[in-house]
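User: I've been trying to design a sequence by hand for this structure and keep getting stuck. Would you show me what you'd pick, starting by listing the structure so we're on the same page?

Assistant: Good idea, let's start from the same input. This is the structure you sent:
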């Protein structure tokens, strides 16, 4: 692939991501604003993307992949289960984490239908960032079980729901800190860790999760 094209795409993705992080909804981004932010003329942009929706969809996938790589890198450098879990909590509590994590549960309703179709057209194999939650959960479970922090590796139900349940307090606190006066960020993360580990405790009567 031509390096010049890759470079221009990267500039465009970064520019659109910045526009969104500054408060512009995905569906409200205009090509004129993209051209101004990136310094790339609209005519040149359309040489590489057939539509604005394709460009924004590729930006979303690019951002998912980029953030996923950063999470995996930090988790690999973390020492032990608790530190790995803290990496996840800190990322989800960050502005970029909230944007990407909540997008698939809330913001999709705000997407124009044409943009939704572009996102769906990529297919799962092209959206490596979309399986981030599953891969992160697996890594946490392996580490927690090895460290003795988790009593079981859990069944299908626990694996599907544990991480999302644990992240709920982190998301609520990071989005609306004023509602939780007197509660510290460390307390929130501690509570979220308790929720996660609780999903992998054995039932004392049956010995099963």
């Amino acid at each position: 692939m031509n390096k010049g094209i890759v470079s221009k795409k990267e500039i465009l993705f970064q520019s659109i991501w910045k526009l969104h992080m500054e408060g512009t909804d995905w569906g409200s981004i205009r090509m004129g604003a993209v051209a101004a932010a990136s310094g790339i003329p609209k005519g040149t942009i359309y040489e590489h993307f057939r539509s604005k929706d394709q460009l924004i969809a590729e930006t979303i996938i690019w951002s998912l992949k980029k953030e996923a790589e950063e999470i995996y890198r930090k988790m690999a450098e973390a020492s032990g289960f608790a530190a790995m879990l803290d990496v996840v909590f800190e990322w989800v509590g960050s502005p970029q984490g909230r944007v990407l994590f909540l997008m698939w549960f809330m913001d999709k309703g705000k997407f124009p239908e044409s943009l939704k179709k572009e996102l769906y057209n990529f297919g799962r194999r092209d959206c490596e960032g979309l399986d981030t939650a599953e891969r992160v959960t697996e890594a946490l479970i392996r580490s927690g079980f090895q460290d003795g922090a988790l009593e079981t590796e859990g069944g299908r139900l626990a694996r599907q729901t544990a991480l999302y349940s644990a992240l709920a307090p982190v998301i609520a606190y990071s989005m609306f800190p004023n509602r939780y006066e007197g509660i510290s960020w460390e307390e929130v993360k501690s509570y979220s860790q308790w929720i996660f580990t609780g999903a992998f405790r054995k039932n004392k009567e049956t010995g099963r999760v």
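That's my pick for every position. To get oriented when you compare it with your attempt: The longest helix spans residues 52-77. The chain has a mean pLDDT of 83.
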